[in-house]
Amino acid sequence: MYSESFASLSLLDGLKDSLLGIAVVFLMLAVLIVVISVMGKLGLGKKKEARPVSTGTVKSLPAYPDTVDLINVDEKTAAMIMAIVADETEIPLSELRFISIREL
Question: How many C-beta neighbours within 10 Å does residue 78 have?
């Protein structure tokens, strides 16, 4: 039964259906362009830019560059602070160098 209805389509009907399909695709592309541009204007979906980290003068570096001086801070808290700094600045933790962490 399906093959009979398919066979009865004329060339004009097939052309109309094809043009309608192409028009729907282009309409959806136009809608996506509008949605993306509105999101860009509102700042949605935009990555935060990495803020420059101010580097003050360091009077003395630790004897071992892989160690961090912890002043009144336990190791678990220091690890959390390092992870937060790496996440907020979007700099990999392996590229950051922490000299000391102290509780204020």
Answer: 19
